Amino acid sequence: MCPNKKTIFILKIFLFMIISIGLLIFLLLWALPVQKEDGNLTDRSKSADDYLQNYADHMKSYMNFSVAPCDNFYEYACGNYPRAKTDHFSVNRRNNRIDLTFTLNDITVQLLGRTYLAETLNVSRELVVAQRFYNACIGAEIVPFPAADPAYLALIRSSGGFPAVDGAAWNAFEFSWLNMSSHLTNYGANGLIYEKLVGRYPFEPYFSLPRLGFDHIVDAINIASNDSRAFQLNDKRMRGYLQAYNLSEERITEVISGVFAFWRDTLKVTKNFNEHCVPFSSEKGLDAYPPLRNYYEIAWNGVNLIEHKDCYAFFAELDKVCNQHPEAVANYLAMQLLYVFDAKLTEAKYQQEHCASLVRESMTFLLDKLYMLEHFSEEKLLEVSEIVLEVRKIFRKTLEEAEWLDEESRETALLEESTLKAIVGSLQNKALTDRLTREIASVKIVEDSFATTNINLARHSIKTNRFSSLHFEELANDTRPQAVYLGMQILNAYFINDHSFYLMAGSLEPPIYHRAWPQSLTFGSLGYIAGHLIMHGFDTTCSLYDKLTKKMQRVFDLRTSCFIEQYSNYTIPEIGLNMDGVKTKDRNIADNEGLRQAFAAYRSHMKQQMWVHPEQQKVSGQMPGLDLNPDQLFFLGFAQLWCSDFQEEHYYSFLNNGFTIDKYRVLGALSNSDDFVQAYNCPVGSRMRPETKSCRLW
């Protein structure tokens, strides 16, 4: 029996209602935010309120509420971080900001499955290579590290030999410390040639003093005793490698003793030079060091031979020491080569993250293409750019009102600010990044030897890092360093060469930025970082300094000396040494002035928002569950960027690199901030509001 027209009409109406309701439910579900493991929101997740509550709980977990904020704000904001931080493995210090690398590792694993994105970008072949390496790494036995793998030993022997293992077969007369160190640079190992690349075209190599040691940089003081942590950590690392070759304990102890003796003699030489190899004495350095030609042939195939002479005298002195300890030098360099391939993991549960990190760090430009397409939206670019602009406007106002500047210097400073270039996300150079991505297809994955595959990847990684240097003649002379074309990284940097600064896309994640955050937290973290980078364009090494009048240079120096004295008085009790206020002065100035500009920009921005949208009283700037007003939250956001967990070896590393210890970045900047002491109502004489006059540059 056929249905009549009325029945058919009712059925059509019913079907239309079912489809409409289904479509509406689908759209509602799609619009809800999802909570990702790293706490970020995507377009499909829980509500923003739930996210903010979860993130507020996360911030609270780092805090030590038993400490008064005016007594020690770092301890108040970060005192519980070492216990509350997420479980990840790192031989380096842990730090809330650097923990972003673990977020990028998680994203890397996700991107390895984005075959449709790879097809869209025409990088499917390269993605397959990345997938194959990742799978090979996951399936390999790398905990404990197989130091005696034939592939690693073969590489060592081809580079200079391993006398501890080869015994009488190793020929000291054929050994060259310079040649072996040159080979090590091809795999990213830090031997006795500590190679860097100049940050401008044609990106030629130059040198710094070598950093001796493995897990702990050594100096004459920290290896004076066999009981020191520096001695024990390095002894343990070398002992592990040598035990893998089934050497007797007596032989192992002999080899390690030889390496320490070599280090001690080398340190007698390095103490006479600064980190750039310039001698502290007034003696003139060497004009040539002929053996270095071998380095350019081994590491650079004779390309980019612009020689930097600063280290010639140091190499000549080092050569004398190496000639006294040839066997120890070869053993040390052999173990440095092993160290670069060693995952250094304490437990197998960290292996997946290590493999993701290897892929992310070695196949950077492939993953960057996928990341920028999926994770860096136009909305994020516009919002971050607006914050940067707000901070810049405040700094211009600061320059206009700075009482100590004469008019000529003020005009010069304002011109410098107007020419400062801000790059959010990354710079674009499609031709170069496409070439670097195509190189990934040449990485050979050896199915039955992960060690060989690991070596191949390390070689590829160094070739990638040196690509612009090796191919400079094919590039335009205005080509920038490769790093600025790579958005998927947490780099935030100022480049003096072209007066520009960069906020890379990979850094625009918590704890630096999130679109759901209140403006107080956003300006305290991202705004401060933008301010810090801007200030590097106006510190003691910037081009502005030389353009100031002589009178203004003297005032500039006087104001700078306040920061030098302040930070030099910070003692690091864990190692009994003081901070170096001279080496760290520019970073400290950038911290202090950047934070000041960011807070003023926050206040200005909120006034504008209330003027444009007076009905939006919801702009409270608070986080649920955190009993802090907006101004207080601003400073908590700044401080928690630097929540950290240091071991002794990390302090030495920081001092050698001229960085301020994280804790003192917080304490130093806030003790100079009138805005901070007002926000937390700190009385005069409290530790965070000393009675002495605070430091200020601009």
**SS summary, helix count:** 30
Oligomer category: single chain
| Major sheet summary line | 3 strands, mixed
Work out the radius of gyration: 28 Å
When the domains are counted, the total is 3
The whole-number mean of residue pLDDT values reads: 90
Give the low-pLDDT segments: 5-12, 14-45
What is the global morphology?
globular
Distance between the termini: 91 Å
Helix content: 40-55%
> Care to count the β-strands?
9
**Mind telling me the CATH superfamily name of the largest domain?**
Collagenase (Catalytic Domain)
CATH topology of the largest domain: Collagenase (Catalytic Domain)
Spatial sequence of strands, sheet with the most strands: 4-6-5
* Named CATH architecture of the largest domain: 3-Layer(aba) Sandwich
Question: How much of the residues is beta strand, in percent?
Answer: under 5%
* Alpha-beta content class: mainly alpha
User: What is the C-level CATH assignment of the largest domain?
Assistant: Alpha Beta
InterPro entries: MetalloPept_cat_dom_sf, Peptidase_M13, Peptidase_M13_C, Peptidase_M13_dom_2, Peptidase_M13_N
Pfam family, one: Peptidase_M13_N
GO cellular component, one term: plasma membrane
Organism: Drosophila kikkawai (Fruit fly)
